[in-house]
Automatic annotation (TrEMBL):
Protein name, as recorded: AAA family ATPase
Single GO term (MF): single-stranded DNA helicase activity
Domain of life: Bacteria
Database matches in SUPFAM superfamilies: P-loop containing nucleoside triphosphate hydrolases (SSF52540)
Length: 168
């Protein structure tokens, strides 16, 4: 094997931050006000009964990491979209796939929308029926105050969890 052999199994293009991310709630550091043993969110995750929610906090405080832990811990399908790169067509496809998974396999779908504050009203409204009907369990991730940056109809159907800046 030489330095330029990229076909070996040891080659991994993942960034260091992705390699070091916690894989479960016991490894998750910080945000104890949200994920402490016995907390509402932790119980909902462990019972696989999470409802639609919005994770709001500063960059780098664990919002996306917690969503990934939810993805690996719960028994549903997990779809990840980024509001900067996605539009109504992507949402419609995800909702249709979720509807089929629920109908055919009885399997729920978690839809993580990263940077959800970037969706405009039309894009946000495309999510509303699926959230209301339980077709998807929406997990929004945002650095902006959702009460000011998102449509009230979406926010009113979600539990908002406020993440705090990490101290260390």
């Amino acid at each position: 094997m030489d330095l330029f052999d990229l076909n070996n199994n040891e080659y991994d293009a993942k960034p260091l931050a992705d390699k070091m991310r916690p894989n479960n709630l016991d490894e998750f550091i910080g945000q104890q006000h949200i994920v402490a043993p016995g907390s509402l969110l932790r119980r909902a995750i462990s019972l696989d009964r999470l409802g639609s929610c919005i994770f709001w906090g500063p960059p780098g405080c664990g919002k996306t990491t917690l969503a990934n832990i939810i993805a690996s811990t719960t028994h549903g399908n997990f779809v990840k979209l980024n509001a900067v790169q996605s539009g109504v067509a992507d949402v419609k496809k995800a909702v249709e796939d979720a509807r089929n998974a629920l109908k055919l396999y009885g399997k729920k779908t978690y839809l993580l929308l990263d940077e959800c504050h970037r969706f405009n009203k039309t894009q946000s409204d495309s999510l509303l029926p699926a959230i209301e009907q339980g077709t998807i369990i929406f997990i929004g991730s945002t650095t902006e105050n959702p009460y000011a940056s998102m449509t009230p109809a979406i926010v009113s159907r979600c539990r908002v969890f406020e993440f705090r800046r990490l101290s260390e």
